[in-house]
Amino acid sequence: MASSSSSSPVFLILCFFTFFLLCNANPFRSYHRRHPRFASHNYKDALTKSILFFEGQRSGKLPPNQRMSWRKDSGLTDGAQAHVDLVGGYYDAGDNVKFGFPMAFTTTMLSWSVIEFGGLMKQELQHAKQAVRWATDYLLKATAHPDTIYVQVGDAVKDHACWERPEDMDTPRTVLKVDKNNPGTEVAAETAAALASAAMVFRKSDRAYSRLLINRAIRVFEFADKYRGTYSDGLKSYVCPFYCSYSGYQDELLWGAAWLHRATRNPMYLNYIQRNGQILGASEQDNTFGWDNKHAGARILLSKSFLVQRMQSLHEYKSHSDNFICSLIPGAPFSTAQYTPGGLLFKMSDDNMQYVTSTSFLLLTYAKYLKSSGTTVSCGGTTVSARTLRTIAKKQVDYLLGTNPKKMSYMVGYGPNYPKRIHHRGASLPCISSHPQKIQCSAGFSFMKTESPNPNVHIGAIVGGPDLHDNFPDERSDYEQSEPSTYINAPLVGALAYLAHSYGQL
């Protein structure tokens, strides 16, 4: 007997689909809401890896939840030479020295990433906060004594003469400090900025720790402002040419005061900024933002007070920020930025990618402030919207992740084609598990000079990047292009969180 139409397969499918529609109203609506456009990259994956990178840079006693398993404990007696505890913190790049100046800037930018975009990070927020805390726990040790900051552990010249794993290092762990007699205003003010911004990161989750950070930030900034001088003078043979302060300390004083103003809401910092802003270079046309020069970042940070909180006394920082933005817009009347043929912002041949990530972060952050206030940027009669800033930032991040002439991701472990021979001692030498015997100072160079890929994949590490013509040789000896650093990754964390959320990946 033939089946009736009421029980035919077609009829049953139609009934099921009708029932599905009734129960779910529009089953595709959430998909379209979460994925408004086609995503060029897996920004969520890149975000995860950009934060994981910091675990590979850790110094000190590693925690049980350490995920970068090829790294082990190192630097466990750091500070002993000066009878202080300086265990912990981060190695800045591919060597085994702890430089306080770039470490503090890294901390500030990690914190700013969490402050602006942490609410979008979902499960990665805890990892980002752990990355901040690994730095601030160390910075609290480095600032434990009043009017003294320990600013470096290790002798860079002797360290660079060796190619050793951090777990093996036997070069001098020289301890350097700034104090009242040998001031270091830039490193002190940057450390104050790091502590103040981090205090905001932990304000809700750990109030006691947040209070400790902000109180220390206040004390350190007072020291930075009262005892003025550049640390490059007193410590020149140790910090130059590695992290010499070429821009002076005025930018750090403005930057530090801006962070304390934001973190404390104390009017004394607003008064300080109003009184000293111009002296400290608020209006200078220096449009390079990185570990040495903080002027552009300070302008963007202070512009929020005017744009979002309507502090009229800081209105000039909107125009200062606009000038920085206009310098980046290709074809705009005041544009001074240089781009490679493939579209990458190019500032300098050494470690250029740090300027790409820091600038991308500032573009996205300023776009957020502009949108909140319903304003735009005017570049010589050309109106630039928040959307334009986001488009430029996305293009830079996409280039970094593989949308470039070489189709290479400049983040290790992301995508099918990425640098295999990064300039990094720990990554390029066999790990302790596979080679428990100590690798002596000079013996490591035999590994460094091979053409073989690094045995340890330093996931999330972003290298210095291609040259002005989009070329990248992937050679371990080429530290200008192949060395990763913490201050390249830190601002990208915030940018990736924004992009991952925008494309429904978080």
Automatic annotation (TrEMBL):
Belongs to the glycosyl hydrolase 9 (cellulase E) family. It holds the Pfam family Glyco_hydro_9. One of its GO terms (molecular function) is cellulase activity. Keywords: Carbohydrate metabolism, Cellulose degradation, Glycosidase, Hydrolase, Polysaccharide degradation, Signal. Residues 43-496 form the Glycoside hydrolase family domain. PANTHER family: ENDO-1,4-BETA-GLUCANASE (PTHR22298). GO terms for biological process: cellulose catabolic process. It is an enzyme of class 3 (hydrolase). Its EC number is 3.2.1.4. It catalyses: Endohydrolysis of (1->4)-beta-D-glucosidic linkages in cellulose, lichenin and cereal beta-D-glucans. It comes from Spinacia oleracea (Spinach). Residues 1-25 form the signal peptide. The active site is at 423, 474, 483. PROSITE patterns: GH9_2 (PS00592), GH9_3 (PS00698). The gene is LOC110801553. InterPro entries: 6-hairpin_glycosidase_sf (IPR008928), 6hp_glycosidase-like_sf (IPR012341), Glyco_hydro_9 (IPR001701), Glyco_hydro_9_Asp/Glu_AS (IPR033126), Glyco_hydro_9_His_AS (IPR018221). This is Endoglucanase.
